[in-house]
Amino acid sequence: MAELKPKLTQVDPVWSRVCDEAEAAIKEDPLLGGMIHSSLLHHATMEQALAYRFSFKLASPEMGEQILREIADQAYGNDPDLGVSARADLMAVYDRDPACHRFIQPILFFKGYQAVQAYRIGHWLWRHGRRDLAYFVQMRVSEAFGVDIHPGARVGKGIMIDHAHSIVIGETAVVGDNVSMLHSVTLGGTGKEDGDRHPKIGDGVLIGAGAKVLGNITIGHCSRIAAGSVVLQDVPPCKTVAGVPARVVGEAGCSQPSITMDQVISGG
Questions:
Q1: Peptide bond into 237 cis (omega under 30)
Q2: pLDDT tens, 134-179?
Q3: φ and ψ of 260, to 5 deg
Q4: What mean pLDDT is reported for the chain?
Q5: Separation of alpha carbons 268 and 266, rounded Å
Q6: β-pairing, 212-214 with 230-231?
Q7: How far apart are CA 171 and CA 187, in angstroms?
């Protein structure tokens, strides 16, 4: 008779830390017990918890929690990269946002993180030809979180959107890995033209609050866009741009602007 090998338990250090923090949070404030149990501890995996948060936050009289939960579970089950991206985004927020002290905070409280995870499900629907449903997700994310990301946009891993109020990302926009942006950022078009009409943001870019990046232009890797800038032309890699319209005002100041989050422009 063949020897049966023991089944190894999958190790997920990110989810294990989330659960440890959740238990500690309940001890600190038992009034949060119901919310934390239903949102985190009731679930076996991070993907299940994110699917629950997606369905709970986006449910409406038009579409209830059960249907949305089925959609999210299908997405996470079909595409493991959604869970990988969710963990990378969580680490990005924890590492870069000085207001984030625990892993549970973005999942429970930060609308930027929650909006990006909901967008990822909408993008999965878009890629699988379920475009009306993807538009519904976009609409509800905009209504619930004040973040409007077209489901056709392509967004990389390790994304941090701080505060996340009034974020707009257009249909043909591309956002690379390890990008950080603050509130009121627009990645938009410049008129009524159809086709490829939105910005392409390289890896490691930092986009300051209120910046508008418009048109089918390229923002080079590891560059910085100063707060309030209006960018209408390509930006070379590792440069800082500022102004209306934006122009190059110097080097990026470091190798990874999106990670250091340094927005101070040195005087010339």
A1: no
A2: 999 999 999 999 999 999 999 999 999 999 999 999 999 999 999 9
A3: -75, -25
A4: 94
A5: 6
A6: parallel
A7: 9
Q: For residue range 220-250, list pLDDT tens digits in order.
A: 999 999 999 999 999 999 999 999 999 999 9
> Of all residues in the chain, what percent carry a pLDDT higher than 90?
88
Contacts of 35 (CB under 8 A, 6+ apart): 108
Q: Is the pLDDT of residue 92 over 60?
A: yes
Closest to 205 (Cα-Cα) out of 232, 183, 178, 184: 178
Q: How many residues does the chain have?
A: 268
Q: Which residue has the tokens 């110097």?
A: 250
CA distances from 91 to 7, 25, 55, 249, 267 (A): 29, 19, 23, 31, 32
In the predicted structure, residue 48 carries a pLDDT above the cut 80: yes
- CB burial readout 242-266, b (16+ within 10 A) else e: beeebeebeebbeebbbbebebebe
d(CA 26, CA 105): 13
122 contact partners, CB below 8 Å, separation of at least 6: 134, 137, 138, 141, 149, 151
